[in-house]
């Protein structure tokens, strides 16, 4: 019980101090929660945005956040829900061990550290919530295996709930349920072909959300895209946060422990959890980087796969098991301290950039340009979606929201603002980067003056004028706010050198 309490404390500790959890995409999501909650009461938001409620597989945090935002505000609602996600992830691992009668797994400390894996750090909170809930659902699926008639209708509903939370979390659960069912049948002595067929039939109720996917209107089509080189980057960045040497070393420790567990006779894998881990690792290898309009599809599978693999390890020698448990808890404490320090640093830099927000007129339409490091850089200050906080506090329109039909319910009322109407048009990468969607000078020159009233730059040096019609109104920390004068004339000035 004390170990479980320590694990859960470590899961929430890094998120306690920052007012806004410093996850990369989260400020943009918070802006969306605010718009959905307040649109009916805010004429300023109504002028800029529309929100068309529909059944989509990407609402895990949105639904409770919008409900809570009406009572306590979007920022507090987001923090309360996001704070629970790592704890749910760790609790799900413990519950899986419990239903397999393992007690506390000796490698649970290493597994718990993966609650702060890349997908969570990137701010993919709907997926992270659905993945954490999928672990709890899997525990229930395994425990009800002796009662398949009772289990089928219950988990048809559970599958629908997981799909609503995030479609990729539902897919993760479907794979895990199939693998666990097959392994359980093999434990009972069934031959492999029969076990596989019976497991597929048992999982048919979990496919119910496919009907909603078929009935949904077609979204913006994106081709499947594999990036095999990136998979090695995801493995090295299993615990990617701020300090590359430390994060890679942590991943190496976990890899070495799993390799030893596979090779050494002193270790065994729980057959059911081991099968789940194996199918999730196979999914990571086989899945594309982009699918169904979502990015980083393969990367999202990695942390849950490795966490379940670690939780599946059994140690034959009780003394070795205790030593590994203590080593894992020490590893977790060190990772927790580092993540907490990293979040404090990022939160302070985000707050410095947000000091400009009171200077933005309520209801303004703001072209946001953020000096973003290359995607290949290990860490950043996570400023790319910070304008979402200004949406909450000033009811603005900006060019950093996700408005992909079929994935997000949010839309805007400015078709003429394109291409500066949605993410990632706010991100200005150095020209040497492999990915550079927005040119600073072109954005300042071409932004539609009939729509945009202000320009907000983050991470660029301030200057009196950004262009002949873009005059500095306020500057604070890394942020500068420029007011666009009534003149329609724009300048072709080159961008200022990025501040470092």
From TrEMBL:
It comes from the Bacteria. Signal peptide: none annotated. The chain crosses the membrane at residues 80-99, 120-142, 154-184, 196-218, 243-262, 269-287, 324-347. Keywords: Membrane, Transmembrane, Transmembrane helix. It comes from Sphingomonas spermidinifaciens. The keyword Transcription does not apply. The keyword Zinc-finger does not apply. This is Glycosyltransferase RgtA/B/C/D-like domain-containing protein.
